[in-house]
Design a protein that fits this description.
The chain is of the alpha/beta class. Strands 1, 2, 3, 4, 5, 6 and 17 form a seven-stranded mixed sheet that branches. A five-stranded parallel sheet has the order 7-14-8-9-10, covered by helices on one side. A three-stranded antiparallel sheet has the order 11-12-13, with no helix packed on it. It is built from six helices and 17 strands. It folds into two domains: 179 residues, FAD/NAD(P)-binding domain (3-Layer(bba) Sandwich); 90 residues, FAD/NAD(P)-binding domain (3-Layer(bba) Sandwich), CATH 3.50.50.60. The chain starts with a strand and ends with a helix. α1 packs parallel to α6.
Length: 290
C-alpha cells in the first residue's frame, strides 16, 4: 500500500515553494516535486525590482535566499517528474515514471514551461505520442522511437530506451553538449508536425523526416489539462477561484499556471493562498471522516 500524504505540491518555483512553507508551518505531511535548481526562469533573471524586500537582486541571488529558507525549515524537494495526476475520489494518484504517490490534496504550480503542442501532438496522444519514455518502454520493445528532449537530464531516459527499442532518434532542444550512448542517433533539427493514420508513423522536422513508431516529448511539464484529466481550463491557464481552488475538489493551482501577470511576487502570494485553502480542505475532510 502506498504512503499517503496530506498534500502534494508540483513545482518548485515561487508558488510551489511558498505553498511548501505554509504546509510545513501548518504541520501537514506533504511532498514537493521539482528540481534542486528550483526554477530555471528565476535563475536566468538578470535583475528583479518588483519583489518586495529583494530590490535590485538577480534571480540567482533570490534563488539562494529561497534555498536558505528551505534549509531553515527542513524542506527537501523530491526530484521526480510527475506525468499524470488522477482523481481517485478521496485522494489523488500521482504517476512518476515507475512510482505512484498518493495525496489527499494537490497544488499545481508548474509554471508555463509546457509550450505550444506540436501539430498532431494532441491528436496522437496515447496513439504513439507520450510524455514518459520509461513508463511506456515495454510497448516499444524492438520498435523505432523518437525522443524530443528539452533538458540534458533527459539523456538518461534516452539511454534506457536504447536498451529496449530497436532504434532511438534523439532530438535535443537544449544548448548543452549531448552525451548519449553511441547506439542513439542524435538529430539536430526542429520538430514541426506529427503524421500518421490511426497511430504515429512519421515526424516532420524543418529539414528532414523521421519514420517512427513512437514519439516521446520530454518537456519540463505537460499542459495542466493533460496532466490532470477533467481539469477545467481558461485558455491555456487553469481556471481557479479566489481561494486557488480548481473545479476538482482538493485540486488547487497557483502561479503562472493560473494566468497573468507572470510575476514572482504574485506567484508566491498565490502559493500561500493555495496552501491555506488546501490545509482547510484537508482538515475538513479529517473532521467529517471521524
Amino acid at each position: 500500500m502506498n504512503e499517503r500524504y496530506d498534500l502534494a505540491i508540483i513545482g518548485s518555483g515561487p508558488a510551489g515553494l511558498s505553498a511548501a512553507l505554509n504546509a510545513q508551518i501548518r504541520k501537514k505531511k506533504f511532498i514537493i516535486f521539482g528540481t534542486n535548481e528550483l526554477s530555471g526562469k528565476l535563475t536566468k533573471a538578470e535583475k528583479i525590482n518588483n519583489y518586495l524586500g529583494f530590490y535590485g537582486k538577480s534571480g540567482k541571488e533570490i534563488r539562494d535566499e529561497f534555498n536558505n529558507h528551505l534549509k531553515s525549515m527542513d524542506i527537501k524537494i523530491t526530484e521526480e517528474k510527475i506525468n499524470n495526476i488522477y482523481s481517485m475520489g478521496e485522494y489523488y494518484a500521482l504517476m512518476a515514471n515507475d512510482k505512484i504517490y498518493e495525496a489527499t490534496a494537490v497544488i499545481l504550480a508548474t509554471g508555463v514551461n509546457f509550450g505550444k503542442p506540436l501539430k498532431g501532438e494532441e491528436q496522437f496522444l496515447g496513439k504513439g505520442v507520450g510524455y514518459c519514455a520509461t513508463c511506456d518502454a515495454p510497448l516499444y520493445k524492438d520498435k523505432i522511437i523518437t525522443i524530443i528532449a528539452y533538458n540534458k537530464h533527459d539523456e538518461d531516459e534516452a539511454n534506457f530506451m536504447g536498451t529496449i527499442a530497436s532504434k532511438v532518434y534523439y532530438i535535443p532542444m537544449y544548448k548543452e553538449d549531448v552525451e548519449v550512448d553511441d547506439s542513439i542517433e542524435v538529430v539536430f533539427d526542429i520538430p514541426k508536425e506529427i503524421h500518421g493514420d490511426n497511430r504515429v508513423e512519421k515526424l516532420i522536422l524543418k529539414n528532414s523526416e523521421i519514420i517512427t513508431d513512437g514519439i516521446f516529448i520530454l518537456r519540463d511539464s505537460v499542459s495542466p489539462g493533460q496532466l490532470v484529466p477533467g481539469l477545467e481550463m481558461d485558455g491555456n491557464s487553469v481556471k481557479v477561484d479566489r481561494k486557488m481552488q480548481s473545479n476538482l475538489k482538493g485540486c488547487f493551482a497557483a502561479g503562472d499556471i493560473v494566468g497573468t501577470p507572470y510575476q514572482y511576487i504574485k506567484a508566491a502570494g498565490e502559493g500561500n493562498i493555495a496552501a491555506l485553502s488546501a490545509v482547510s480542505y484537508i482538515d475538513n475532510l479529517k473532521r467529517t471522516s471521524k
